[in-house]
Amino acid sequence: MFKVLHLSDIHMGSGYIHGRLNPETGLNTRFEDFVQTLSFCIDRAINDQVDLVLFGGDAFPDAVPAPYLQQAFAKQFCRLSAANIPTILLVGNHDQHSQGEGGASLSIYRSLGVPNIIVGDTLATYRIETKSGPLQVTTLPWLNRSTLMSKTETDGMSMAQVSEVLLDRLRIALEGEIRQLEPTMPHILLAHLMADAATFGAEKFLAVGKGFTVPLNILTRDCFNYVALGHVHKHQVLCENPLTIYPGSIERVDFSEEKELKGFVMLEIAPNEEEENAIVQDSSKSSRTTDRQNLTSQNLFKTTYEFCPVPARSFCTIEINLCNSTMPQDDLLMAIHRSTIQDVVVRLIYHLRPEQVELIQDMVVRSALSAAHSYTIQADLVIQLSRSRLPELGVGATITPMEALQAYLINREDLRDLESPILEAARALIGDEQGVMFGSSGDPMFGINVAVPTNRSIETIDFSIDTSDTADVQLRLL
Ligand SMILES: [Mn+2]
Fold first, then answer.
1. Structural domains in the chain?
2. How far apart are CA 25 and CA 34, in angstroms?
3. Which of 32, 230, 266, 340 is the most exposed place for a label (fewest CB within 10 A)?
4. Integer distance in angstroms from the first to the last C-alpha of the chain?
5. Ligand 1 centroid to 238 CA: how many Å?
6. Residue 202 CB coordination number (10 Å)
7. pLDDT tens for each residue of 155-186
8. Ligand 1 centre and the CA of 245: distance in Å?
């Protein structure tokens, strides 16, 4: 039986904004968190005496990590090397360097010839001698267009066409690796990629601009006993047969990972006893050779897994809308006290109206958050840029200019004192216009009877304007 530990997406050196300076070490506390969590994984590998450790890629935020990051990473993985645990470090997109011949932040381990460490920076298959026997691992690092195609080849092709050709080449290259496999040995595919579990159409090919999306069916071949993935930070099982798993990242890089459980995957690949028995029975007959040829490593071995959570730093968002609160500070403090914030990275978001701002004392809020590992406060002012529409002025309502003005004035308390003069001026204006329109064309006069609320009482004002159809233009304003 083989025991394999699979972890991925360490990103050591990320998310410092959520940490603080440790005065004792002079280092960012988030760096220390990442080292501690990685150390937790390595401890488990050593204590459980696993046969193999697979790292799915993305060691650092970029391919040129600061020396202290390189050193911290190396210290942990060299413990595996010293414990004679074979380890494969796969190259992810964050590890690749595009200058010159390429290379990666992890290539140094090969250059130095660190025992028991293999750097997976090309598509290749390794036979690894473990204490439980040999097994095979195919490494598939992050692919970009230039890995499989030259510039002249892609000239004049659409993104969809490029992706199609790339996938075809990947399929062929992987097939080449698969054909070299020894079927009696367990076989693992270790890949850093964005897998696409859905059936894909041309729209999916367009994703190549952001990355290279690989359809799951290219990976889930029955020759594999396990497909170990890296790149996606959320732990997920994409396929049961063969088991295809993203262990996810080991520490939260930002708040997008707040709700995700962090950890690694522990695998057991054991001989499939049912199949073994079948072979023994068959071997008494003459058909043994034929049956053995038909067997794939998938039915010779059985893979089981366990997701092992790690003590990653918790993140917590506290969001509260205080717009309708009469005591916004009390409500805000209550929301903080209801949350577990001890040693947690906290993001406090509250919404309030501009006139409530002075009701919040920043120092009191900060003091309430002091138990957090770190915190940010985001106060969102809710400003009503426009008044709500008046129902009287809604679409579809047939209304005259005077009615519209009246409805508007009723809703503007601040203009109450000016209501009468405004209305009178409006009447005069409209009257003038009507007079010009009708008067100049020689149309007959019309009269309007208007009831106008003035100073909260309603009085009727009579005035006369030229009219041709009294019924149609009679206004009754309430
Ligand atoms: Mn990645």
1. 2-309 (3.60.21.10), 315-381 (no CATH), 391-473 (no CATH)
2. 15
3. 340
4. 89
5. 17
6. 12
7. 788 877 888 888 899 999 999 999 999 888 99
8. 15
